[in-house]
Write a structure and sequence with these properties.
Helix content: 10-25%
Distance between the termini: 13 Å
Order of helices and strands: EHEHEEHEE
């Protein structure tokens, strides 16, 4: 699991079909750590990570770079999209 307690990956055609994604931009959340903060906040498989802090996430490279730049012990903001609804979570690393 990542710093955010979910596993993610590059959006592949099979995931677009499985999760009914309307775009291949961002990264898809493929699993969420049971009982984690992100699960309690409503993050679920099929959601797309679209930004971390002010970094727009278009692909896995953007995602990994954004994670590397998160400062330890500082709050960071992750935004994700499910369909047309965008949500955000602030948490510490």
């Amino acid at each position: 699991m990542s710093t955010w307690d979910f596993r993610s990956g590059k959006i592949q055609k099979s995931w677009q079909d499985e999760f009914r994604l309307d775009s291949d931009e961002g990264v898809v959340i493929v699993s969420v750590e049971p009982g984690s903060e992100v699960q309690r906040k409503g993050v679920r498989p099929g959601d797309r990570v679209i930004s971390i802090e002010e970094n727009h996430i278009k692909n896995m490279d953007d995602f990994e770079k954004a994670l590397e730049n998160i400062e330890k012990n500082r709050p960071s903001l992750c935004s994700w999209r499910r369909g047309t609804v965008t949500s955000a979570l602030l948490r510490y690393r």
